Amino acid sequence: MWWKKNKFKVIVPVLIVAVLVVAFYFGGDHRGSGSWGTDTSPSPAAGTETVPETTASASPSASASPAASASPSPEKPVPEQSSAPAASRTPEPSAAASSSPSVSPSASPEASETPEASASAEPSASAEPSVEPSVEPSPSPSEMPPVSPSEEPEPTPPEQEEHKLTCTLSISCATILDNMELCDPDKREIIPSDGWILGPVTVEFEEGESAFDVLQRATREHGIHFEYSFSPFYNSAYVEGIANIYEFDVGELSGWMYSVNDWFPGFGLSGYAVKDGDVFKWLYTCDLGADIGGGYAVG
Q: Which CATH number covers residue 272?
């Protein structure tokens, strides 16, 4: 019963092992297993040493090598035997081999370097020279074309400073100091001790401006009180008060008058056109101009 059930389990492994043994025995390198793996070449005679066979005529490579031209092969000499083949003996260098041109060891490096040197020199010789940009030299002063007088630039004249129109102006009430008994008691405290309300100053003006324009600008720039009115009779502005000092503050004949270059015009200040360099004086009179040299001029 057991054999019937397990015969395949036993037979199959046995067959596989048998096949592997046969294949290994006949397919491997086993001596005596037929012609497979056997060496059929004849063995050398006992007591002899096999030497590689060399030709009688030296090849160019053998003649060029220093070992072939200098001495025989450094291998052990073979003892002379009649039974040894001729090829096993080391031949002496023949006359043809010795007469062939040989290259000495010292010369061979130079010969091998010569092609490299020539090869390295060729690219530099064949290399195209670098082209530098050409720079044209600037012409010397003698080579420059002459410039005609008409083409020469004209010198620019120096800028002239614009002349400004100016005049001199002053305001004084010194006459009141001699008539303090006539002065309004409320105004005595504002009267300057030296009589000067505005010392002589330079005032700029535009051409065509009047004496009224100059007085108004000067009092505004220096922060001095100035009050006026328009008089149809004189067709001009009329000065009523300067620095809070009005007409009639020092009697019935008191008031303001003006002079130009020590001359008292007989017309209103709006009618006088200022000239460059004029000297204006605004003076307070206590006697209709008689105390300032103006007579009965208009202020």
A: 2.170.130.30
